[in-house]
Amino acid sequence: MKTVAILALHGVVPFDLGIACDIFSRVRTVDGDEAYRVLVCGESSRIRAGHFDIHTPWRLEQMLDANILIIPGVENINIVVSSAVKKALRLASDRGALVASICTGAFILASTGLLDGRRATTHWAVVDEFANRFPAVTVDPDVLFVDEGNVVTSAGSSAGLDMCFHLIGRCHGQAVASHAARLAVAPLFRDGGQAQFIQQTALPTSSSLVPLLEWMLGNLDQPIDVTLLASRASMTPRTFARRFRDQTGTTPIQWLLRSRVRRAQELLETTSASVDQVSVAVGFDSPVTFRARFRSVVGLTPSSYRRRFSSASLSTQAD
Fold first, then answer.
1. Rounded to an integer, what distance in angstroms lies between the CA atom of residue 132 and that of residue 93?
2. For the chain, what is the mean pLDDT?
3. pTM of structure
4. Residue 227's pLDDT is what?
5. How many CA atoms are closer than 13 Å to the CA of 254, on its beta-carbon side?
6. How far is CA 129 from CA 21, 85, 125, 159, in A?
7. Radius of gyration of the chain, Cα coordinates, nearest whole angstrom
8. What DSSP letter does each residue of 193-231 carry, written as one string?
9. Regions of the chain short of the pLDDT cut 70
10. Domains of the chain from N-terminus onward
């Protein structure tokens, strides 16, 4: 039997905590035996979690011998992580524990330095803040989870389910993971990533390029290239490309592509325009190219996305 220690700090997100507790507690091996011993650990015996208090029966010391250590999300991403918590997480990792975070728990994990030089993800709504705060971490905002071997991070809360099933599969194989998913009435694998849930293209909070970015968002249906953008910014193309990456973390063309796809998502959700019409409305020359680019960013085809998220589809499902 493996031990799963779950770190519960003040302000822990109850849903994240519940996911980890419930999923691992229900897992059975192929022989029908309990697969995991689950320990909820904290710095104190009682913590505040949303609208209620939670008793945490185990202390930080119990995390040190865990096989898997889960860090659920916290409501306040500016929480001060104590030196005792950081030390316990690093020691557990040094002793061979697999350390994983759910949602904003990535902020706790990154504060230890265990994510430095690695890929990671967190909830899309705070991914820019995460990237700014932890520049040594390569952030992937679109995926449901990132497996870096002995450290794993997941996106928004429900992506914690996907990550937990993945970890169970790593330890016990897909048959056991599939059974855990069936007990949770959840899919073992979800098509697409976190990108399908992102609402809009976020503008940098402080950037000299904000007026240009706003212009780009207002002219997505027009032909736009780096030469045109550099001219509008009164820079040479080379200087503009360097300045753009410095201030946005990506290239002008990649930013434009993602913005066009985000706009296409909005049109697919809220209008009855055909996929080809949406393609033209967001500036793609070819519907074939649009479908390929859309799938590469969102993880779903435009038609699949519409069936899943359009207002008409949701109304039909509700009826």
1. 25
2. 88
3. 0.70
4. 94
5. 9
6. 28, 22, 9, 19
7. 22
8. -GGGG--SPPPPSS-TTHHHHHHHHHTTTS---HHHHHH
9. 189-206, 311-319
10. 2-195 (3.40.50.880), 199-318 (1.10.10.60)
